[in-house]
Amino acid sequence: MLTVSSCPLGPRTSGVRSLERKLYAYAGLEDFVLLYPLYALLFAEHGLTTAEISSLFAIWCVVGLLVEVPSGVWADVVSRKALMVIGPVLTAGGFALWALTPSYAAYAGGFTLWAIGGSLRSGSMEALVHDELERLGAADRYGRVMGRAAAVSMAATATATAAAAPALAFGGETLVWGGSIAACLLCAAVGATLPEHRATGHHGKARRPGCIATLRDGLDEVRGSRPVRRAMVLAVVITSVWGVLDEYVPLLAASTGVATQTVPLLVLVVWVGVTLGSLLVGPGERLTDRTAATLVAVAAVALAAGALSGTLAGFVLLGAAFGVFQLADVLADVRLQAAINGPSRATITSLTGLGTNIASLLAYGAYAALSPHASHGAVFALLGLPYLLVAGALGRPRPAPAPAGQEAQ
User: Fold this and answer.
1) Looking at the domain assignment, is residue 269 inside a domain?
2) Structural domains of the chain, count
3) What is the 3-state secondary structure (H, E, C) of 8-43?
4) Which of 4, 87, 108, 256 gives the lowest tally of CB atoms within 10 Å of its CB?
5) Residue 364 belongs to a domain with what CATH number?
6) What count of Cα atoms within 13 Å lies in the side-chain half-sphere of residue 125?
7) What are the φ and ψ backbone dihedral angles of 399, each rounded to 5 degrees?
8) What is the pLDDT of residue 143?
9) CA–CA separation, 332 and 349 (whole Å)
10) Measured distance CA(384)–CA(378) in Å, rounded
11) Residue 87 · residue 29 · CB < 8 Å
12) What is the mean pLDDT of residues 299-324?
């Protein structure tokens, strides 16, 4: 009779499932923030002008850029799990600062803490999940796991957005602040339960190289590995463009002339497409590069057609296009993680995040520059053109990985 102890797959499967449950809980709690649809309105109610609110967003962005790479290096040197715990705690501290001392200075300080908290998680999560799955012999599940985590995150954001107005009506600002802070602290508590097994040295002690050495190792791998460089560039372009366009979907919806109360419904159509893209990572991993390239090219055309149509049906096309881009987004991360061979996984992932943030700033600037001269639909179509380049790059043969102990040229 076969017993559990005699089956080598039992503990491994149990470990993978435990990691998945904790990761999904973490992702959901991190984005179940009742403040998301309300904080700009609350700032305005406390006397901030539109220019002051915009400057807070700029502070948020700049701090994130400055902290992105150092946080990835720190994750590789110290503990990825520790950073995933500290990040939500800092975000909760920022929200508490807003609640207790509503003023421009407090809001700036809160955004600074939020940006640092987000940067600490960025890179740390991907590296921890990939290495833990690899340790459990399930590295091939990375894409599906991260895709589902993204879907849980989006569902949590949508749920929090739907719950924000009733929460404000029932419990006022106190419930909104308290619920957001509690979600962050619960997220940190779940993060503390995540597993982390780091590589060990000859004497059984975890390797903890210095920050400079870790950053140098990461940069050396980027310079020396063509597959890593290619995966980084694809991830930056794929992630940044549609991530920026997503912020302007409400404006595109309003430009169709629908009633204000209809705008959230059109935005929801797009979010459904994005969520489906996250859930289709498993089948997406089985696509050939040529098929994936064709899919991205078709999505770029669908994006332009949907945005330019000026009709409600166009948002179905837009949702389908965004779903493909989200799928390509997760698959680009899968490709990047598979290409990394050295110990500086979080560092390289954060370098990619830095590139994404810079590209996003450029995309925001392009949208701002084009918007006085073109409709929202036309700007969407123009900014979708980079995906035709992405499709061309995906359709080309991948560079062969470097042999063990050698660098790819």
Assistant:
1) yes
2) 2
3) CHHHHHHHHHHHHHHHHHHHHHHCCCCCCCCHHHHH
4) 4
5) 1.20.1250.20
6) 29
7) -65, 145
8) 92
9) 11
10) 10
11) no
12) 94
Based on the fold, state whether residues 241 and 390 are members of the same structural domain: yes
* Residue-wise pLDDT tens digits, 214-243: 889 999 999 999 999 999 999 999 999 998
Cβ atoms of 310 and 360 within 8 Å: the answer is: no
Q: Cα–Cα distance between 333 and 79 in angstroms, integer?
A: 21
The residue among 143, 139, 128, 157 whose CA lies nearest residue 327 is 143
Kindly state whether residues 234 and 179 are assigned to the same domain. no
Q: By residue range, what is the domain housing residue 172?
A: 14-191
- Which pTM value belongs to this model? 0.78
Say how far apart CA 386 and CA 393 lie, in whole Å. 11
Condensed to tens digits (0 to 9), the pLDDT of residues 242-286 reads 988 887 888 888 888 888 667 777 888 888 898 899 889 989 989
| Whether 251 and 176 share a structural domain | no
Q: Is 266 exposed, middle or buried (0-12, 13-18, 19+ CB in 10 A)?
A: buried
Do 266 and 371 belong to one domain? yes
Enter the tokens of residue 358. 């810079």
Longest pairwise C-alpha distance within the chain: 75
Q: Is 55 contained in some domain?
A: yes
Helices 226-247 and 376-383 sit at what angle, rounded to 10 degrees?
170
368, exposed or middle or buried, with CB in 10 Å at 0-12, 13-18, 19+?
Answer: exposed
- Please indicate, yes or no, whether residues 224 and 157 belong to a single structural domain of this protein: no
Q: CA 376, CA 223: separation in Å to the nearest integer?
A: 39
- Mark which of 191, 208, 238 sits at the end of a domain: 191
Q: Is residue 293 part of a domain?
A: yes
**Same domain for 112 and 223?**
no
CA torsion through residues 74, 77, 82, 84, sign? positive
Say if residue 378 is in the same domain as residue 229. yes
**Residues forming a β-bridge with 200:** 206
Last residue within a domain, chosen from 174, 191, 208: 191
Q: Give backbone dihedrals phi and psi of 340, rounded to 5 degrees, phi first.
A: -75, 130
User: Both 231 and 181 in a single domain?
Assistant: no
DSSP 8-state class, residue 141:
G
Cα dihedral sign, 11-13-14-15: positive
Structure tokens at 318: 């837009």
Q: Look up residue 379 and give its two tokens.
A: 């700007």
Cβ neighbour number for residue 218 with a 10 Å cutoff: 26
